[in-house]
Structures are given as C-alpha cells and as structure tokens.
Amino acid sequence: MMPKAKRPVGPRPRLSAARAIVVAFGLPAVAAAEQVTVFAAASLADALAEIETAFEDATGHDLVVSLAGSSALARQIRQRAPADIFISASTDWMDAIEADGLIEPGTRFDLLGNSLVLIAFDPDAAPVEIEPGVDLSGILGDGRLAMALVDAVPAGIYGKLALQELGMWDDVADRVAQANNVRGALALVARGEAPFGIVYASDALAEPAVTVVGAFPAATHPPIVYPVADLSTRDVPAEADFLAFLRGPAAREVFARQGFAVLTE
C-alpha cells in the first residue's frame, strides 16, 4: 500500500470556510495539529477522499486513510498496526476487533448502509430481474462474474450469500473471478475483463465505465452495515474530532451523494 503523499511543509491557510465548518460542527479550535490514521473499507475510497480534505481544512489535523478489504484491515489491527479509527464494511469484523479489546468502549456506532447490485461492462446490457429462477449462468455466457473474495471480504460474503439464497451459487461458483476487495472486482468489470460483477451500489455509482443491470433484494443477504470505532492504540483529541465530523452534515452529504444510506443522526 502506497503511503499518502504529504503536503509541502508550511502553515495552513486559515480559510474563512474552514472556520465556518469548525463552528458548524462545534469542534474545538486546534491548539496543535495531530495525525489521525483511519483504516477503512475499500468501498469508501471516493467518499473518504472528499471527507479527508474537508476535515483537514476544518481542523488543521492530518488525516491518513488506509484502504483495503475489511478482513485484511482487521488482521492488521489484530497485529497492532498503528491505526486510530476503523471503519468496516462488516459488523462481524468489528465484532471480532471489539472482542479482542481493541476498541475504546462507547465509541462504536453504525455509520452507513449499502446494497448489492449486478453490474455489466456493456452499456447496452439488458436489465436483469434478480429473483429465484433467473439463469445467471446463461447471462454470463462464456464470461466470468467478478466478486470480492467470497469467503473473506464483506462484499464477496454478502454476494455469495445472496446467490445461495436465490439458488444461483452452484451454477456460477466455478466461474467467479475473485478480487482482493470490492474495488478490485469493480475494476475487472470496468476494464472489460469480466462482463458482469457484484458490487455495492455506491461502487457502481463511482465508476462510469459500468452499468447497473440489476439490484439484489435486501432479503437475500444480511443488512450491509458499516460500523466505525476508535481503536485503543492511543488516545488523542483528534480521534474524537474525526468521529464527530463523520456524524456532521458535511460528511453526511458526501456519503448520501455517493450512494450510501446514512445511519447516523
């Protein structure tokens, strides 16, 4: 994973817009800039890129975002990787981290929701009504179905469960092209390496090279929930500032615009 490029050393401009955001969120004035390292599910890449800039301008803190599949991030946290905040695409992985005593008590909350969609590389691909009896294998033809790792990464796990619920998994299991995370699966379809794929609705919205051809009914898989928590690695005021920012109107607007269901108030 490539490190985030740092800005040139020098004083930050004190923009009136940034001061307005600080006031709007009720965040404290920053006496000294601090660094906050966030481990986040890969599906949050575009949203957190926007939020990173807004948070840094508002507070003067430095936000470092590390993106990967939730399972990989959880393993790194268990190995005491230097992360401050964890945003998972799976409650199971957050449960595991919490059971290990690796989050600060009382800091965990459900941030976002999402849904699963079937995407296609061909912009003229016919819509698919995803329901029991649909011949997904026939729709694939000679192609493969791109998915995140079906036994480790949340998007892949949800997708496999949905296909099993619909009675489709056995017909396509040997034709699934698995990627390390959901953005990898998205890229396989965007490049035309797989004609179809299963990703989150927010991922499909972020990639103009794919077309949504069907939506998986919510009842075919467990609810897709993104919990967030402050990790117990260290305790600095900037961590609480970032969690407060995630609950605020600027972050909520970004998440909603990018296709997530916002669960916080």
Automatic annotation (TrEMBL):
Residues 1-31 form the signal peptide. InterPro entries: ModA (IPR005950), ModA/WtpA (IPR050682). Transmembrane segments: none annotated. GO terms for biological process: molybdate ion transport. Keywords: Metal-binding, Molybdenum, Signal. Molybdate binds at residues 43, 70, 155, 182, 200. GO terms for cellular component: outer membrane-bounded periplasmic space. It holds the Pfam family SBP_bac_11. GO terms for molecular function: metal ion binding; molybdate ion binding; tungstate binding. The keyword Transmembrane does not apply. NCBIfam families: modA (TIGR01256), PRK10677.1 (NF007958). Belongs to the bacterial solute-binding protein ModA family. This is Molybdate transport system substrate-binding protein. It comes from Citreimonas salinaria.
